[in-house]
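**User:** Everyone, produce a chain:

**Assistant:**
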Amino acid sequence: MDVTTAVRTRRMCRRFDPDRTIPDPVLDDLLDLATRAPSAGHTQGWEFLVLTDPADRARFWAASNAYPSDAGDREPDPWLRGVQPAPVLILALSDKDAYLDRYAAPDKGWTDRSEDRWPVPYWDTDTAMAAMILLLAAQERAIAALFFGVPGPAHPAVKAAFAVPDRLRIVGVVALGYPDPHTPTPRSPSLRRGRRRLADVVHRGSFRSV
């Protein structure tokens, strides 16, 4: 599959097959490709927490507030029921200090390590690009994938559950697996919005009207 086909056919999966896993060599290959993402100053300030053990994944879902304290005995919502069976969860983590340190090096010279020099947090941007490579590489291999976020209030609990260092920030999570053959992922209602036209998003030369 070429890149154009991977981009045009990629879809987020929200219903995973509970009976299929991803072989470790395949997973390692996907992660290796993710580390080929571009990064400012070749800092490579990303880390990946990979959860494949069922107990670890259950701990993630509990810590991420997937089960609110007032849920009682209620069943998980449809989204969670579909995504929980994913055999792989990869937390994409960014390291701000790695960038501040890198740009304080002699060849960069920002010795004050000031965040004011970073109007855009490239530590998050670069980590997100690595996650995008994961999604595309998975598509090439007919592996289903979903990128989703962890609710802000749940970040401390998730990090504590897996001893994630304080310096790292959770940018998002990539779930990997195979589509549930019995319950296909429903079409997202958000797609009714349609795709924005190229003419609406591309501005050649200026934003001024001609």
